[in-house]
Amino acid sequence: MRILYLTNGFPYPLTSGYLRHYFLIKELARFHRITLLSVVGPGYVPQHAEAMAPYVERVRTFVAARRGGSRLRKVAERLRSAGRGRAEMRAMRTAVEEEIKTTCFDAVVLSGKPTYDAIAGLALPPIVADMCDATSMRLRGQMPYVNLVRRAVLWLDARYVMSAERAILDKTDRVLFASARDRTAIVGGPTPRASVVPNGVDVEFWKRSAPTLGTNTMIFTGAMNYPPNVDAAMFLIEQILPRVRQTVPDARALIVGHSPPPSLVKAGTLPGVTVTGFVDDVRPYLEQATVFVAPVRFAAGIQNKLLEALAMELPAIASPLAADGLRMEDGSWPPVQTADTADEYADAVCRQFAERGSHSRPAPEGRAYVQSQFNWTLNGEKLNGIIEAAVRDNAQAQVA
Questions:
Q1: How far is the C-alpha of 266 from the C-alpha of 83, rounded, in Å?
Q2: Which member of 50, 102, 130, 335 lies 3.0 to 4.6 Å from 176 by CB, making a disulfide possible if both were Cys?
Q3: Whole-number pLDDT of residue 85
Q4: pLDDT per position as a tens digit, 221-272
Q5: Which of 12, 41, 21 is nearest to 225 (CA)?
Q6: What integer is the mean pLDDT of 59-82?
């Protein structure tokens, strides 16, 4: 088949938030011919398109007018562009119209809620929309942790996102979610139109080289310009670490990830804390750690950082919210210990330090869980089946 694939961010490099689509496109390319239309930011370079060349016939990119900035600015921009869409989406829409005039596509796959503006109302083949996560759930979950002004902005943003989510559900043939939890938050549970296609992990890359764990070291990783990660990192530094150090005075916390805000950089000067900023390779830092701690208080989707830590055989302690993103449709629960309060986290960390300090052995059960449940090849095949079913149903409806 010929597939038109639209994304709101470029799927490469693999540090991008759209790396999910690099792997899904790579798997779909085993079966189909793909044209990729993608929004790109200021960090985009031609080499990124070259990395996609083995898997797509053609790449067309559309430069985002502006990315980043405060949430208030983003909400204001959405209000200004209401009814018109973002400039890059208008350009992408023109490109979609051009593509469907010259090529007979069998299906459209789109990712990113703003991307729907590029296809709304067009006569297209079956559309498979990757919702990925329940963004509106994440925004609502953040509200209790911010001041009244930011809460109002988040409320406006959540209303806009809920409207976009509803439009996608109503106007597309199939929808995908990265986790069962996110599907439940948006559609209420399993339906024939809503499928779970989890992320995967390259277990050959995320593989230990050190035979033992580090000593008395907590680690948390992720993009540190993402509000749920910043909140979790600050909670770890300010609430959990001091409690742990009352029992284990030499305990330390590693916060590893690009673009930390000034508040997090400043927190990195506290005793026992290291905030790295961008690093070329996260694995050496994971190998220094005794335990991965993910006190994520609001989020959506799958916590890739937690999957990577498990693949590296680190024992993990996480919020129920973070762990629930790794729960499978059959109810299988990841080998992750959960905690809610700072005291619960500190107690769990101290127990891990005491236990691991006696033998320093890694935790292979986490890697086994990731290998069995989060496999890009299997997930690509699942997506392929969903696309083929959508095309088949559409053909049958036209005959009828």
A1: 42
A2: 130
A3: 62
A4: 999 998 999 999 999 999 999 999 999 999 999 999 999 999 999 999 999 9
A5: 41
A6: 67
Q: Give the span between the Cα atoms of 29 and 133, in whole angstroms.
A: 24
Q: Are 59 and 52 in contact (CB under 8 A)?
A: yes
User: Distance (Å, rounded) from C-alpha 335 to C-alpha 331?
Assistant: 13
Report the relative pairing of strands 316-318 and 252-256 from DSSP bridges.
unpaired
Check: CB of residue 175 under 8 Å from CB of residue 131.
yes
19 vs 27: CA distance, rounded Å: 13
What is the distance between the alpha carbons of residues 250 and 266, in angstroms, rounded to a whole number? 20
Rounded Cα–Cα distance for residues 65 and 87 (Å): 7
Distance CA 393, CA 400 (A): 11
Asked if the peptide bond before residue 13 counts as cis, ω within 30 degrees of 0, the response is yes
Per-residue confidence (pLDDT) for residue 68, from 0 to 100? 52
pLDDT in tens, 191-224: 889 999 999 898 999 999 999 999 999 999 999 9
Residue 338's SS3 state is strand
From the list 10, 34, 11, the residue with the least C-alpha distance to 387 is: 34
Answer for the pair 45, 16: CB distance below 8 angstroms, yes or no.
no
CA–CA dist 270, 66 (Å, integer): 34
- Count each helix (H run) and each strand (E run) in the chain, helices first: 16, 13
Is pLDDT at 152 greater than 50 in this prediction?
yes
Residue 370 structure tokens: 């990731």
pTM: 0.83
Q: From CA 49, how far away is CA 101, in angstroms rounded?
A: 24
With pLDDT > 90 as the criterion, what percentage of the chain qualifies?
Answer: 68
